[in-house]
């Protein structure tokens, strides 16, 4: 339905008020389509707020979105800073374990919004959390607020992490 809606909306070119349309619609446009109305950074910031699950996780379309986002943000390696993590939004859900490890705690807030993780991602999340080198600090210092911020990651925590969190 969204794919069809995009065709209708863009029939006479890209509308200038594209930002007023549902974010999920942007998943079916390319950054070059959007360039007429804004920057690629703005496009991916909006895409990062969309429901990525509209596209299958391993679909070529979803993989292409991530590749184009990394290129747009000029992320050369696997380290994503906090500002770029904020722009990527839910797109971080598709980053592999190497990105999660390299970026330290920069991705945790966005990762906590993801519906599910691949084993490689889960392992990387546990590694980053266990290191304690995040803005959240080591699990022994966490409060209820910290757990609330990371609530989407709790299912990934193993026994060694859980036992360190204060009661």
Automatic annotation (TrEMBL):
<keyword id="KW-0130">Cell adhesion</keyword>
<keyword id="KW-0325">Glycoprotein</keyword>
<dbReference type="InterPro" id="IPR010335">
    <property type="entry name" value="Mesothelin"/>
</dbReference>
<dbReference type="InterPro" id="IPR026664">
    <property type="entry name" value="Stereocilin-rel"/>
</dbReference>
<protein>
    <submittedName>
        <fullName>MSLN protein</fullName>
    </submittedName>
</protein>
<dbReference type="Pfam" id="PF06060">
    <property type="entry name" value="Mesothelin"/>
</dbReference>
<keyword id="KW-0732">Signal</keyword>
<comment type="similarity">
    <text>Belongs to the mesothelin family.</text>
</comment>
<dbReference type="GO" id="GO:0007160">
    <property type="term" value="P:cell-matrix adhesion"/>
</dbReference>
<keyword id="KW-0472">Membrane</keyword>
<dbReference type="GO" id="GO:0016020">
    <property type="term" value="C:membrane"/>
</dbReference>
<dbReference type="GO" id="GO:0009986">
    <property type="term" value="C:cell surface"/>
</dbReference>
């Amino acid at each position: 339905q969204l794919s069809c809606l995009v065709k209708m909306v863009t029939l006479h070119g890209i509308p200038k008020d594209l930002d007023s349309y549902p974010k999920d619609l942007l998943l079916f446009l390319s950054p070059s389509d959007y360039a007429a109305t804004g920057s690629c950074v703005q496009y991916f910031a909006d895409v990062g707020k969309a429901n990525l699950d509209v596209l299958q996780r391993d679909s070529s379309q979803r993989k292409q979105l991530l590749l184009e986002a990394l290129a747009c943000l000029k992320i050369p390696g696997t380290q994503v800073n906090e500002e770029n993590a904020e722009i990527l939004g839910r797109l971080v859900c598709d980053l592999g374990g190497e990105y999660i490890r390299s970026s330290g705690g920069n991705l945790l807030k966005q990762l906590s919004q993801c519906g599910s993780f691949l084993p490689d991602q889960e392992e990387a999340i546990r590694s980053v959390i266990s290191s304690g080198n995040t803005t959240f600090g080591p699990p022994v210092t966490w409060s209820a607020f910290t757990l609330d911020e990371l609530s989407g990651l709790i299912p990934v925590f193993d026994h060694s992490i859980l036992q360190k969190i204060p009661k």
